[in-house]
Batch of 4 targets.
Target 1
Amino acid sequence: MDNVYLLIFYGVVLLLILVASFLLFYIRNQNMVWKQKRQLQETQIAQQKELLNAVIDSQEIERKRIGQDLHDEIGGTLSAIKLMLNSLKKQVPEAHTETLTDAKELIDKMIVDVRNISHDLSPPGLSVFGLIPTVEAFVTLINNTGQIKIMLSQVGEVDAIQLPEKTALALFRVITQLVDNTIKHAEATSIAIDFNLAENFQIHYKDNGKGFDPDVLNQRGGIGMQNIQSRLQMVNATYQITTANGKGFELAIQLEIPPSEAL
């Protein structure tokens, strides 16, 4: 009888060992599967980021080429036409001088428009003067149109930041896209852009427009917002969007600045 109990005891112990071994094997296998899935996701994210960087880099190269062509070819041609009109003005009857003057003024406007478009496509001062002066020049241009009022403010030695050109260009594109979105869709009268150098580099954008339902952005963000989010992800910036119907739009951006760049 004792042998039967002993056999039962050993059987139970063996069964427990088998169950424990199976559980350990299952947990280990699940951990390996989870680790492989995480590595696959990280690889996919890295590949998507590399693809996004390549796409944006190619876009910027093409923008720069088109901007230079506009400035050099179209701008040069318009300037030549202007000189020809000035020369022709001395030879035509006085009755036609008013027409030539109107044509010259139209050429002047076209030259300015081409210059502005070429600068927007390829900001010439970004690599020389940095992000803040380039944004200031852009804001001055927008304010001069009278369409909307943009106010800039700075806290800390923001001008001392030496951002990599690629990062500065991405942030400049984000700001110009935000302004474009506000002008086109927000029905706003003012925009505030604040640069703050606290622990990290922060940009706060706010308009007083009609805003929108944030759920709509989460479900189907427009191309403009997708470009903004993609560029911010490209430079590893964190951001937070705050908006609601009738409450305007805000975007807070935070970018870690290595000590060597915050001189």
Target 2
Amino acid sequence: MNPRELVEHALERLLAKDMRAFAGLWAEAGVIEFPFAPPGYPERVEGRAAIQEYLRGYPELLDVREITERAVHQSVDPEVVIAEFEAAGLVVATGKPYRLRYIAVITVRDGEIQHYRDYWNPQAAAEVMGGADALTTAFAGGLDG
């Protein structure tokens, strides 16, 4: 699977709420980083098992129902793509609408995600989650519910 196909597949796994398969797209030693992580939020999660554990409770926090405005750009490096997308759905705890834009720089080698830098907006996420404290409580310890 080339990088663009892998990103499209990852977004489909996210929509299907199949976090095990989503995390399974990372290499054994793969990494996810959050360069804009707010205080108390993890800046880096290393290893497929840790990523799987981190993402496990995501569907209990956010009910992502559609991916809109998706675009995957090929960089000059054939292993690196930049994905721009918007996730839309509901915040499970409140039933309020959730809509957030993401940009990710993703390195794919041998059909697996090696490195995923997730440039999301923590301020916008805090607003939809009910405030900074709610965001930190929901995400800081991992998404394991």
Target 3
Amino acid sequence: MTYKRFGNTYIVSIEKGEEVVESLKRFCEAENIKLGYITGIGASNKLVIGIFDTKEKVYSSTEVAGEHEITSITGNITTMKGQTYLHIHATLANSRFEAIGGHLNSAVVSGVCEVFVQKVEGEVDREFDPNVGLNVLRL
């Protein structure tokens, strides 16, 4: 992973074989980014995406194998109990141009992954809300 800063905007290049979510987490920790948002594109051949069942309050995850374009990565950067917390979603397209998407648990880069990170001054923490079943923003 390499990156370059322009004011409060960073351009992050995640390289072939690297895992996207962990790479972004390491990047945020290295640059002390506690609050921000991300957007990106790329390619992956091994992903895990999930969806939250609001009725049952549980996540279901599935592994997605084979070449996929990451047509969109979007998400936010916050903290939970002082630790970096990434909430990222992704939309993927396969070789038949069919799209799927969900919460991005992990993605191994098969080509490149280019992410723009916008740092926001401040910090917002999260806490678990048992009524929702999720870690929600504590504003």
Target 4
Amino acid sequence: MKIEIPLPTIDEQLANVFEVGTNAGIKQLKANLLAPRLPGQSEVDESQYPRTHLLRENEGWEAPHADIVGAYFRHFQDAFPQYNTDAKMAALLGVSSDRRVREYKQGRINVPYGIWRRFLALTGRVPQDITPVLAFMG
């Protein structure tokens, strides 16, 4: 007696992995809409600074002023004690070290677009970017 176990092809397995990942992403995006609403930072008067740090890179984004970075980061750290150190902020943002976070706050180094955009999305200041799939190219 020969036992045969039908297995999906690699392409079918990859399609399944993609579908599961996409559905998990959709679930997370919907959960994001239920995040608590917190008051904004009050450390700096944002009307005194350009709003270009909220734009997408292809829309004219410019790195935020150090005052904005510091105010946003400190406000976030006050609201979320689990990220109350620069080392914890660095880990959250995927930054190499707490020193780099301090350099961003002090304006010694501009926050790169990807890191800043991630922070803005984490804090609900901008929507998350969704990249369209143009084709599945084996």
